[in-house]
């Protein structure tokens, strides 16, 4: 028996996709769902594209009636059928929605989604569909991230970024650098994480033409964890420079310089932090920062004069005390002296 | 209750839980002062947040009629800004851990809303389920 004859005999008497679609019109979803599963199973081996469509239709119907178990089962079925077609993006979608909807096996399904989106990205790139390729690599990376395979997530974010940079899609470049940084953080590679947080902050700044400070702050924190306090201070200073709340950046930079033994710079930036707090009414914070500055400063008289000017307003004593305790904890954690 | 009201209620409950805890430690006036710039910043980004104010260490929201996605995005910005402000004084580790705990408790009884309105999609990373330890 020839291939075509065998094919015809296996599907003889079975309706085509178009015929079956017409047959199910008007059926209530709880009846139509199982019928579409049956149709898809009949076509699974010989017409995987029809099977994929059938399982997809069934999944949507199960979801419509709130049968989440059926929805997950049919989503996985259409994902597997799509892999055979192959329609990698659809396969990725199937595994992803199954992972999102059911905790059991979620990581494996996310990993499968990642694999399929990655293949979809490669195919789109080969076909020169660059925006689609970028989307697919980013979707793959996001799935790998959820599957806790952070290294693969980084690799696909970088693939996505390489295309975005060529196409000058600056929003995507900025987003993906941030994601790469977060994944290096998860891998505890703090140096790399800081490097990409800086790139993220710079890309955001040039993209939106506004100062962007979050990335600088996170880069500073990652450098602290990497033990590179000089670089951390630089990043924190950028945070101070660009942020609407510069005090935080300056205080962090000052702490780095204090730990590096450069008390002159530490005093300079503690004072800058306090100067930002005073006009914002946070005198209870400024007063405590000045007390701390005094413990580092050589010229204590100058700081004493400033302390005299900055009094904790009545009613804010509790707030000042709470801030002092937090500051002391923060300094102890960083191995710095906590007060005069 | 309309879904938008439920969303406002969810976010307000989380934020009030967090603001209330710190107002208990340092007093409500200090908290009002501390979060004021954050609220103004969020309002600049999302006009509808002008219906929101923090007074006496509590967040109060007037009625607002905006699209769900706009609402979520605005409250995500506001949450991040408020947590940032509180972190400035109480330290990020403490504030993030506390706010995450409050969100965990409040979200338990509102799973349906969280799923229907896809709340977790835009939630600041430090509150979402798959978040990692923040630096």
Characterise this structure.
- Helix content of chain A is 79%, strand content 0%.
- The longest helix of chain A is centred in the middle third of the chain and has 21 residues, at 106-126.
- Chain A starts with a helix and ends in a 7-residue tail after the last helix.
- Chain A is mainly α.
- Chain A is built from 18 helices and no strands.
- Chain A has helices at 3-10, 17-24, 29-43, 48-64, 68-84, 88-101, 106-126, 130-146, 150-167, 170-186, 190-208, 214-226, 229-242, 246-260, 263-277, 283-296, 300-309, 317-333.
- In chain B, 36% of the residues are buried.
- Chain B is mainly alpha-helical.
- The termini of chain B are far apart.
- Chain B has a two-stranded antiparallel sheet with strand order 1-2.
- Chain B has one domain.
- In chain B, a hairpin with a 2-residue loop joins strand 1 (52-55) and strand 2.
- In chain B, helix 1 packs parallel to helix 3 (68-90) and helix 1 packs across helix 4 (92-108).
- Chains A and B meet through helix 10, helix 12 and helix 18 of A and helix 2 and helix 3 of B.
């Amino acid at each position: 028996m020839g291939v075509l004859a065998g094919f015809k005999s296996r599907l003889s008497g079975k309706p085509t996709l178009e015929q079956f679609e017409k047959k199910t019109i008007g059926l209530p979803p709880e009846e139509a769902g199982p019928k579409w599963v049956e149709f898809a199973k009949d076509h699974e081996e010989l017409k995987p594209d029809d099977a994929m469509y059938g399982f997809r239709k069934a999944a949507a119907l199960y979801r419509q009636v709130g049968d989440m178990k059926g929805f997950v089962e049919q989503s996985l079925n259409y994902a597997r059928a799509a892999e055979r077609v192959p329609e990698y993006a659809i396969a990725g979608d199937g595994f992803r929605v199954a992972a999102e909807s059911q905790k059991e096996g979620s990581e494996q399904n996310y990993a499968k989604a990642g694999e399929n989106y990655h293949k979809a990205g490669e195919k789109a790139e080969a076909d020169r569909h660059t925006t689609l390729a970028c989307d697919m690599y980013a979707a793959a990376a996001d799935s790998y991230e959820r599957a806790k395979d952070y290294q693969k997530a980084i690799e696909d974010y970088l693939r996505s970024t390489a295309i975005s940079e060529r196409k000058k899609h600056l929003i995507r470049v900025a987003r993906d650098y941030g994601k790469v940084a977060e994944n290096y953080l998860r891998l505890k590679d703090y140096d790399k994480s800081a490097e990409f947080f800086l790139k993220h902050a710079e890309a955001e700044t040039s993209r939106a033409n506004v100062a962007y400070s979050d990335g600088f702050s996170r880069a500073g924190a990652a450098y602290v964890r990497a033990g590179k306090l000089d670089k951390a201070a630089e990043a924190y200073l950028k945070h101070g420079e660009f942020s609407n709340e510069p005090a935080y950046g300056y205080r962090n930079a000052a702490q780095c310089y204090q730990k590096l033994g450069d008390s002159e710079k530490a005093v300079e930036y503690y004072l800058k932090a306090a100067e930002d707090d005073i006009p914002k009414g946070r005198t209870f914070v400024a007063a405590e920062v000045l007390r701390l500055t005094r413990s580092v400063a050589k010229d204590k008289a100058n700081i004493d004069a400033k302390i005299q000017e900055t009094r904790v307003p009545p009613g804010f004593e509790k707030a000042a005390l709470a801030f002092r305790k937090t500051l002391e904890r923060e300094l102890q954690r960083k191995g710095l002296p906590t007060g005069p | 209750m309309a879904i938008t009201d439920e969303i406002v209620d969810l976010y307000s409950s989380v934020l009030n839980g967090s603001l209330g805890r710190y107002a208990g430690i340092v007093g409500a006036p200090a908290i009002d002062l501390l979060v004021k710039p954050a609220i103004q910043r969020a309002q600049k980004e999302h006009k509808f947040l002008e219906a929101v104010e923090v007074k006496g260490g509590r967040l109060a929201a007037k009625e607002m009629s905006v699209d769900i996605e706009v609402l979520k995005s605005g409250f995500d910005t506001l949450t991040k800004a408020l947590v940032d402000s509180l972190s400035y004084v109480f330290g990020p580790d403490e504030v993030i851990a506390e706010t995450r705990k409050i969100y965990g408790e409040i979200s338990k009884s509102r799973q349906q809303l969280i799923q229907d309105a896809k709340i977790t999609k835009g939630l600041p990373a430090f509150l979402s389920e798959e978040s990692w330890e923040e630096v």
